[in-house]
Amino acid sequence: MCTVVVSIDPSAEIPLIVVGVRDEFTERPWVPPAEHWPQDHPGLIGGRDLRGGGTWLAVDPGGRRVGAVLNGRGLPAPARTRCSRGDLPLLAAAGGRLSESGLGRYDPFHLLRADPAGARLWHWDGIALSQEDLPPGTHMIVNSGWERGEENERVAFFRPLFAAAERPSGLGGPWERWRELATGAGIPSEDPRTMIINHDLPEGGPFGSVSVTLLGLAPGGVHYEFTADPRDPAAFHGVLPE
């Protein structure tokens, strides 16, 4: 993924809201969220990358926990030992521990683990692992990491909008404003502020936003919406509750 929004309000009925926009080569095969790992990670739900076998975002409904990974910047892993980063969200959603041992197999990443009690972010730059806890508030994570200033135009534009969005009164909604923002608020793809991208990369071909996830996690349950039509706020479908 290339954009993750994390909204934390411990006093709210829904303490944690997460928006995840996945950017990927559009021809890379994948399937929508489901329980794709019944043997290794029973109960976890997420979209599955058919090339690497993992995911970009995983949810543990029972644990009210989400794990999400973004590409980072730094020293790439050696080609002969490189592993897919798609297993990292599964580890995070399952509540597993992340240690620096063995991370040399992965290209740089940012890994989020969050639940209604809070959120933690790990950063791997190919050399060292660091971590930080996100405080209450509205935060945006992009490929450069947790952006807290105004330098990133996307963050400078969207963070105040997400921060001002009224929180749903319960897991059942209403979620209309969050859907509108999660699908880019109508900002065209050529605008530097855009959250929904679409362009060609010389080294890989068509690259763009291919899906959007909208989550609400509360002690009483999980609200999980997903769309493979990233510009249409009406195209979300419910994953949880079933």
What is the count of helical runs? Answer: 3
Q: What do the pLDDT scores average to?
A: 95
Shape designation? globular
Sequence stretches where pLDDT stays below 50 over 5 or more residues: none
- Count of strand segments: 15
* Pattern of helices and strands: EEEEEEHEEEEEHHEEEE
Q: Residue share in helices?
A: 10-25%
- The CATH topology name reads Penicillin V Acylase, Chain A
* Sheet with most strands: 8 strands, antiparallel
Query: What is the radius of gyration computed over CA atoms, rounded to a whole number of angstroms?
Result: 17 Å
Structural class comes to mainly beta
Which CATH architecture? 4-Layer Sandwich
Between the first and last Cα atoms, what is the distance in angstroms?
Answer: 25 Å
CATH top level assignment:
Alpha Beta
Describe this structure in words.
The two termini are 25 Å apart. The chain has three helices and 15 strands. Strands 1, 2, 10, 11, 12, 13, 14 and 15 form an eight-stranded antiparallel beta sheet that branches. Strands 3-4-5-6-7-8-9 form a seven-stranded antiparallel beta sheet. The chain has helices at residues 88-93, 153-164, 176-182, and strands at residues 3-8, 16-25, 30-34, 45-49, 57-60, 65-71, 109-115, 118-124, 129-134, 137-142, 145-147, 198-201, 205-218, 221-227, 237-240. The protein has 242 residues and is mainly β. 10% of the residues lie in helices and 39% in strands. The protein has one domain: Penicillin V Acylase, Chain A (4-Layer Sandwich), CATH 3.60.60.10.
